[in-house]
Amino acid sequence: MPDKQFTVELIDDVIISMNSATAGGHQCLNYLPGSVFLGAIASYLYSKKSPELAHLIFHSGKVRFGNGLPVDDEDRTCYPVPRSWFHDKENRDPSPADIKNQLWEHYPPTQQPKQLRGNYITLYKNVPFFSVPTQYRMKTAIQPGTGLAEESRLFGYSSLPAGSRFRCVLSVDDSVENGAEILAEITDILCTRDIRLGRSRSAEFGTINIQPDTTVEHLNHFDSNEYRILWLLSDCAFVDKLGLPTLY
User: Fold this and answer.
1) How far apart (Å, rounded) are the C-alpha atoms in residues 206 and 225?
2) What pLDDT is recorded for position 66?
3) What's the confidence (pLDDT) of residue 164?
4) Contacting residues for 234 by C-beta, under 8 A, at least 6 apart
C-alpha cells in the first residue's frame, strides 16, 4: 500500500521536549517525533474503536507514524546527518567539502576529527547544512485566586517557532485487510480536525496545519557487492528472534 505523505506547518510555537520531566530545564527537539501524531490520532480514535482494531492501529506496528523531518526554504526535505561524518575539530564552520565519511576515509594523525551533529542535510549536492532554529521563552506560574505571579515559580520553555515546516509519512502494511480505510480515516482527522502538539497546548502553543503532500524525492543508493549501508532516519532498535537487543 502506498505511503501517505504530509506537510506540517506550525501555526503557533510548538514545544516538543526531549523528556517528559516536569522539573528542571527543557530542551526542545528539532524535529516532530511520530509519537506526537500517534497520540493526536489516538485522542480521537482510540475509544471509538474495538479493542482489536485499536491494538492494530496503535500497538501492532503495522500502522506507522513517521517523524516530521524539517523542510527548508526551497521545499526540500532535510535528513539527519550520518553519525559517520566527521570534520577537523579546528574547523568551526565546515562546508560539505570539508566532511569525511569515516566509513571510507580517515583523517591523518595530525588532525583531530570531530563528529558532525545536530544539523540536517538535503539530497542535493553543495547545499549547505540546514539547522532547525529554536527559541526560548521565560514564563511564571500565576496564583489562581489573585492572578499575581507566584514566588519562586519562574520557568522557561524552548520551542520550535511558528512558521517552521516539516514533512512526515504515514504508512500501513499491505497485510492489513482494511488498510485503505484506516489510512483514509487518519488522513481525514489530520487534515480537518484541530490538531495541537506538544506541551502547553491549552495556552498559546501547539497549533499546527497538516496537508497532504505529493513531493517526490529520491535517496541516493550506494551500490556495492561487499556492503549494504543503512542510514537511519529515525531511531531503530534491533532485536533477535527472542526480542533481545542485538547488533547482529
Assistant:
1) 47
2) 93
3) 94
4) 34, 66, 67
